[in-house]
Amino acid sequence: MGLVVLSNSAMALWINIDSNDDFITYADLDTIRKNGHQVKMWDMKDYKKVQISSNNNMYFSSMNQKEYNCKEEEYRILAFSLYSGNMGKGENVNYETIPDRKWSAIPSESIVARLLKIVCGKL
């Protein structure tokens, strides 16, 4: 499954969504998949400094597949992958799926709120 994410990262068209002093957030609009009020999409954080994962792997970028509930304005993370290089390049140092993840409220003015607006068409 991780190989699918890795191969897709090279072909993805990453759109810059937001940036701060620590990372740049991108979205891959080609991965938007709608099912009623629920929408899935991959996003990526490209870090400016090395990060350390919970299992002590160093990484510079993370990709997350999130599912958004457009009606309830909530989200959950379905899967994530960490890469040793920037922009999803380098070695895949961690890949996890998160089954049965509970829905979380989306804080207003957050990056996740901006992603919700994109996938739910509320720009």
Describe, in plain words, how this protein is organized in 3D:
This protein has 123 residues and is an alpha+beta fold. The protein has helices at residues 2-11, 111-120; strands at 14-19, 23-35, 38-52, 58-69, 74-83, 92-97, 104-105. It has one domain (2-120): Lipocalin (Beta Barrel). The protein has 2 helices and 7 strands; from the N terminus they run αβββββββα. A hairpin with a 4-residue loop joins strand 4 (58-69) and strand 5 (74-83). The longest helix is centred in the N-terminal third of the chain and has 10 residues, at 2-11. It is globular, with a radius of gyration of 14 Å. The relative contact order is 0.20.
Main features:
123 residues; alpha+beta; Lipocalin; seven-stranded antiparallel sheet; 2 helices; disordered N terminus
Total domains = 1
| DSSP summary, beta strand count | 7
SS field, number of helical segments = 2
One letter per element, helices H and strands E, the order comes to HEEEEEEEH
Find the structural class using helix and strand composition: alpha+beta
Average predicted local confidence, pLDDT: 90
Which CATH architecture is right? Beta Barrel
Radius of gyration in whole Å, from Cα? 14 Å
Helix coverage percent: 10-25%
CATH homologous superfamily classification: Surface-adhesin protein E
CATH class: Mainly Beta
Shape: globular
Task: Give the uncertain stretches in residue-range form.
Answer: 1-7
The CA-CA distance between the termini, in Å, is 32 Å
